[in-house]
Amino acid sequence: MSKSVTYSVVPRKNLLKKDEPAKYYAQAQASGDVEVKEMAKRIEKACTVTRADVMAVLIALEDTIVEGLERGEIVRLGEIGSFQIGLRGKGAVSEEEYSVSLIRKAKVNFRPGVALTEVLSGLSFAKVGKLPLKKKEEGGSGGDGEGEDPAA
Questions:
Q1: What pLDDT digit, counting tens, does each position of 121-134 carry?
Q2: Alpha helices per DSSP H over 2-112
Q3: Gap between the Cα atoms of 127 and 114, Å rounded
Q4: Based on the structure, what is the number of domains in the chain?
Q5: Predicted local distance difference test score (pLDDT) of residue 136
Q6: CB < 8 Å & 24+ apart, contacts of 102-111
Q7: How remote is the C-alpha of 23 from its chain's centroid?
Q8: Which residue in 10, 58, 66, 124 has the fewest CB atoms around it within 10 Å?
Q9: CA gyration radius for the chain?
Q10: Is residue 60 part of a domain?
């Protein structure tokens, strides 16, 4: 199993300093997707549980994560990591002046656990050409946009 991450180099402008030229950053490139059905097949090969049973558990896991987040709970998946609701919004001068109208949106925060953090150690990187942009309904640009990007 390869631990090599492919990347392309893309220009990004600093939106705070529009007069400066763009700088170039690495953008990770995905090699494909793994859907729930494929995960179920892979898990079935690694243990004695049938694919149908694995599918049932994965679907129930998704429902349980959503339910936990709706209740305001931190959802911990062992060494995989944890999910928690986070908020973005504007600030107020004092606590008394703060109102719910200043909250702009909720998001899901994910904190990787030991298992995922260990994946990142020892990776190698391989440059590839720019991949064509995917259509919006297919999930964005194909990269995760990580890097030291001042515009992010």
A1: 889 999 988 766 66
A2: 36-46, 51-70
A3: 27
A4: 1
A5: 57
A6: 108/69, 108/83, 108/84, 109/83, 109/84, 109/85, 110/81, 110/82, 110/83, 111/81, 111/82, 111/84
A7: 24
A8: 124
A9: 20
A10: yes
For residue 15, tell me if it sits in a domain: no
DSSP for 34-53? --HHHHHHHHHHHSSS-HHH
For residue 62, is it within any domain?
yes
> What digits encode the pLDDT tens for the residues 48-76?
999 999 999 999 999 999 999 999 999 99
pTM of the model: 0.70
Cβ atoms of 51 and 44 closer than 8 Å? yes
Enclosing domain of residue 50: 34-71
Under the phi-then-psi rule, with left for phi > 0, alpha for psi from -120 to 50, and beta for the rest, what region is 50? beta
- Cα separation of 78 and 82, whole Å? 8
Residue 65 in domain: yes
